[in-house]
Amino acid sequence: MLWFQGNSMQLAKSSFGLFLRNLSASKTTLPVLTLFTKDPCSLCDEAKEVLRPYKSRFILQEVDITLPENSAWYERYKFDIPVFHLNGQFLMMHRVNILKLEKQLLKLEQQGAGG
């Protein structure tokens, strides 16, 4: 049911568009947690399970170090996976350190909120 007329309808449309843009922008401001992995990797599978409760707070990007285009990462991390970077910066390796992850996520969230 529409009850807006003339300029009011236009204002409602532009406000809704702004709302959608802000919603979309907030989604893109989630930090990116990069998991350097390979298949199979049981420690990587364990790490992903540990991360499950936090999945709404970051975007998980997996990088298979065995692919030809990732050979530099393979040389760097072949004996250390899983390895995690948060927003392009090294965070942790071998196992998930929840305290470290939580501290860095809170820091980024506070920065994003203007804190």
From TrEMBL:
Instruction: Keyword check for Transport, yes or no.
Output: yes
Keyword Electron transport assigned to the entry: answer is yes
Gene (UniProt): LOC103595613
* Source organism of this protein record: Galeopterus variegatus (Malayan flying lemur)
Q: Could you tell me the superkingdom of the organism this chain comes from?
A: Eukaryota
Keywords, comma-separated and alphabetical? Electron transport, Transport
Family statement drawn from the similarity comment of this UniProt entry: Belongs to the glutaredoxin family.
Supply the name of the protein: Glutaredoxin-like protein
